[in-house]
Design goal:
mainly alpha; Arc Repressor Mutant, subunit A; 2 domains; 11 helices; elongated
C-alpha cells in the first residue's frame, strides 16, 4: 500500500506540467533542448513546418510563430524555397534576448559593477594565456586612441566612452572564448553608458588610462598575478566612479 502511495506522488509531480506550456512554447522548448543536447547544430536544416507540427502534436500556426521568435533572436534563418536552418551565429540579429533580460533584471548599478568585476578577473586571466600579437596590437591601439583623445581634451559626443568600449571589446576578444565575449559585450553595453553619462568630465578619461595600462602590461608580459593586481586596482577606480555617480 505505501508503495502505491509513493507512485501516486511521483505522478503528481508531473501532472499538469505540459499544460503550462503553450503550443508555441512546446516548439521553442523542443528546439532549445535539441540544441543543448547537440542533436541540432549550426547549419542544420529543420524539418518542414508540417513535420514539426505532426511530431509535436501542435498546429502549423504554432510552429510558424515559434520560427518567427527564433528568427528574431537570430537562432534560425528562413530561406524561401529551401527551408529553415539553424544559424551559424547570432551576430546578425538586431534583438538580443540576453541583453534585454539583463536590462530588466538590473536593480542597481552596484549589481552591474559586481557582475563586471567577477567576470573581468577571469577575462584577464584568459587574455594573459591566449592573447596573440594581433590581439595585443588591437588592445594597445585602443589605449593609444583614448590617450590621444584625453591629451586633446576631446570629451564631446561621448568620445571617451566609445574609446573605452573599443578597449574592452579588444580585451574580451583576446580570450578567444565566444561565450565570454558575448556576455562581456552585453555587460559593457550596459556599464559604459552609465559611467560616461556625464559628458565633459575629464576624470573619466584619465582614470581609464590609469586602469588600462597595467592590464595591457600584464597581458604582454604573460603575468597572471600582475593581471589580477591590475584588475583589483581597476575595481577600486570603478567603485569610486560608481559612488561619484550616486551623489
Amino acid at each position: 500500500m505505501p508503495e502505491n502511495n509513493n507512485q501516486d506522488k511521483s505522478k503528481d509531480l508531473f501532472r499538469g506540467v505540459g499544460k503550462r506550456l503553450s503550443a508555441t512554447d512546446v516548439v521553442l522548448d523542443t528546439i532549445k533542448n535539441l540544441l543543448v543536447k547537440k542533436k541540432l547544430k549550426p547549419g542544420d536544416k529543420l524539418p518542414s513546418e508540417t513535420e514539426m507540427a505532426d511530431s509535436l502534436n501542435v498546429s502549423r500556426g504554432s510552429v510558424r510563430e515559434a520560427m518567427k521568435i527564433l528568427s528574431a533572436y537570430g537562432i534560425v534563418s528562413v530561406r524561401r524555397g529551401d527551408g529553415t536552418y539553424i544559424n551559424d551565429s547570432t551576430e546578425g540579429s538586431r534583438f538580443d534576448p540576453l541583453l534585454f533580460k539583463l536590462i530588466i533584471n538590473q536593480d542597481s548599478f552596484n549589481e552591474l559593477r559586481e557582475l563586471r568585476e567577477m567576470l573581468e578577473v577571469g577575462i584577464v586571466r584568459l587574455a594573459v594565456q591566449n592573447a596573440t600579437e594581433e590581439d595585443l596590437e588591437l588592445i594597445e591601439n585602443a589605449f593609444k586612441y583614448t590617450k590621444r583623445m584625453v591629451e586633446e581634451n576631446r570629451y564631446e559626443n561621448e568620445i571617451i566612452a566609445e574609446a573605452e568600449h573599443e578597449f574592452h571589446t579588444s580585451l574580451g576578444n583576446a580570450t578567444h572564448n565566444k561565450l565570454i565575449i558575448t556576455i562581456y559585450n552585453y555587460i559593457m553595453d550596459l556599464y559604459i553608458p552609465q559611467i560616461y553619462k556625464k559628458k565633459g568630465d575629464e576624470r573619466f578619461g584619465h582614470e581609464a588610462l590609469m586602469s588600462h595600462r597595467p592590464i595591457i602590461d600584464a597581458i604582454r608580459n604573460r603575468d597572471v598575478e600582475a593581471g589580477e593586481k591590475a584588475i583589483k586596482y581597476s575595481m577600486e577606480i570603478w567603485k569610486e566612479q560608481s559612488e561619484r555617480l550616486q551623489k
